[in-house]
Each structure stands twice: as C-alpha cells, then as structure tokens.
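yo

u said u wanted the structure for the complex thing, so here. seqs first:
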Amino acid sequence: MRRTDKYRFYVILGVLVVLQFSLRGRLGDDRVAPDFLLLALLIYTIRARPGPSAAAGFLVGLVRDALTPASFGAGALAHTLVGYLSSWSKAVFFAENLFVNGCLFFAGTWFRNLAVALASGKLKGGLLGWELLVWSPIQSLTTAVAGVLVLWLFGRHLAIRLSDAT
Amino acid sequence: MVLGADRYASRADTLAFIGCVLLSVAAMSLPERVRDPLARGLRQTVLAPFLTLQEKTELLSASLLRYQIVVAQRDSATLAATFLSELRGENVRLRGLLGLGQRLSGGYIPAEVLHEPEPSGNLTFIISAGKKQGVKPLTAVVSPEGLVGIVSSVDAQSGVVVTWAHPDFRASAMAADGSVYGIVAPHGTEGPRVWLLELQGVAYRQLVPNGTLILTSGLGGVLPRGIPIGTVVGVAAEAEGWERTYLIRPAVQPAAVSHVMILTGPPTRSDLRSVFESGSGSGGGVGDGGSGTGEKP
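structre next:
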C-alpha cells in the first residue's frame, strides 16, 4: 500500500465518523438511519487483522457506550465481536466483491444490534422481536447501501488486497 | 480464494480479542458510581468535539427550519397585505354592526353570512344562526346600511335568507318623509339595471325626486318600519296617467355583506329610522340617506 493511499483510507474513515455526528441526524428515524461509525469500523476490519479489529471495535463500542450509559459495556462487547468476526471471516471466506462487502455490512450491523440487545438485557419479548426483525434489518440495509456507495465511490483508495492483511 | 484461518488470526490476535471481550464484560459489570464518571469523562474528552459538531449541526438544522418558518410568515404577511383594503372594509362594516347593535339595544341576533361562490349567491344565502339562536322565518335581516332581506327558512343552526335581489322579494315601502307609499321589488333579472330595485304602485300625481330615501313602511307587519331600502335614482316606467315606477339604488349589496343582524324580538322603538340615521353619520350607515327627516307622517 502506498503512503498516500493509507492517508486517504484514514481520511475516508474520518469523514464517516464526522458524518455520524453531522449528517445522520438528518437522515430520518434514528432506528433506520445508516450507522456511519459502525460502517467505518467494518471498512477498517476489512483491511486489518482480527486483533487490531477487535481492539478498534472495543474502542468504538466504549465510545458509544459513553453516549448510552444505561447499557455501558454492551456496545463495547458487541463491537468487539463484530470487529473480530468481520476481520476473521473476511480474510478466511470472502472474495473481493462489492456485493459480498455489502452483505458483510448488512450482517455486521444486524449482528451488532443483536449482540447489544442481548448483552444489555434491556429489550425483551415483542420489543426484542420488533428490534431484530423490523428495525435492525432496515438499519442494516441502509448501512449496507451506504457502505456499498462508499466502496463504489472510493474503492480505489479502499481496495482490499489480501497481501495488505498479512 | 480461501485462506487458512491460522494465518489471519494469530495467537496475538486471539489474545487481543479475548482481552477486549474481558474488558467489555468488566465494563458491563462496573457499578454506577464508577461507570458514570467514566462515561462522563469520555464525553468530555474524546467525544467532546464530535458532540459539539452534532450540536452545531442540530443548531444549523433548527436555524434552517426557523428560516423556512420566517419565510412562510413573510409570505403570509405579504398575502394578507394584499387583502388589507378588504379587511379595512370588513372592519368598518363590523364596527357599523356593533354600533347598530348598541342602538337597537336588544331584539336582534348577529350572524355571519356563509356566501357560496355560485351565480345565485346574491339571491339567497345561508346565515350562521338558526332555531337554536332564536331565528324565525319571515324576520328582517339588516346590516348597518339597511335592509338585506328576509329569513325564508330556518334549520337548527342555520337559516336561509332571501335577499332583496330575489325575484320573489317584496316589501312595503315609503319615502322617508312618509309622503309616498308603494311596493319595492327587484327591478329585473336582465340588463345593466339587474341589481336595482323599483318602487311600484306610486300614484301618477305623486312625484318622488331623485335621492329620496326609501324606507320600509311597516305595513303588513312583516318588516319593522324605518329600515332603509335605498334611494331613488330615476323613473323606471309610467303607466298612462295611473302610476309611476321608480328605480331605487339599494342601500345594501348582498355580495359585500359578511355579517348581518336578524331582528327577532319586538324592537324597542316602533320606527327604526332613527337607529339607522344615527349610524349613517359614523361611516357605516346609509351613505346618502340624508333626505330622511325623522318625522312621522
């Protein structure tokens, strides 16, 4: 990877973080708007090893937990799992393909929501069902669409080469 | 391409993952007195610039919304300004009604006119008062300027008014000085004089000069005496030495009336001309009704 590509990669991740705190509030209901912070994590995990991905997930989750202290730690656990599993599974199973990456974003978002819901213990019964079967799939879809758009627009700078992951 | 898992999840990666999971579990089990300061600390340090960004964005969004509201208010004000003359006119009419109400001192019901945008809207219209308010059929409907019409039918909450322009309208009338009596009816339904009245049945030898104020005579017991109907503007027809018919410019244009009064009870005075005459001086009454003397015949 060239040095300029590396900078661009982190600039794009930074832009996604900024979008999370600026644009997301204007994209409709909080339950369905794309999660740019998680998207940044997932894009990072595509290129990084599972260990750093888990650490990044833990940090992202901890930061999010600071914004939702009622379920403190649940976000850290969920993002750690998502970061590690995404990086590991991407490296082990998935080929380099836009659609496959979209599926990874979808699955990662849904699994994150599942892990947070279960770990926090705040959602039960019908509420949990609605969250996992209605709202989470919609949010996963919007996040996946946003992720595919990012890869499509900036794929040149985000190109995942297996050699980079070693 | 399928690669071995060992190559991508080394022992260090696994240890890092386990460490992060343990730290997460530890964070979950933190007591509130430790958890809250930790979360607060993160919000005040790492997250502070992002939260500021979010706050500014919300502020910007709210400002844009407020701007749109201000623009909408400005547009509404501009639109309202175009109707300002109409509002002033309505204000004058309402003030006139208020003055008339005070002078009548009872025996009336105020009502709004519910105009319909139809060609026949000037012949009959609906008023916003009915049986519940005490309105009865065949009662006089007036505005500060004079007679508007007669209530023809009444529902529970509304009534139908037949205006003077209706072909079936008739009223017993007299000159303001009581020297001439006749029957007032609409002049016709065609031609340029369609919105004029005519005073029929005036004896040939009785001349009525132009500008003479015509009032209701009170004969027949339907309409009270002394309500302005209009002013004479000329002769409409002559019948060979028997009678003359005079054209009358109505005191009230039904299309311009927005509020009326229905004279329900017995008025305090048997002759209402003084009520309308005193209103004519305040700008809301009969504009050119100066020929009335106030004397009874």
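Residues 125-158 of chain A form the longest helix (34 residues). Helices of chain A lie at 3-22, 36-47, 50-67, 74-92, 98-120, 125-158, 162-165.
cya
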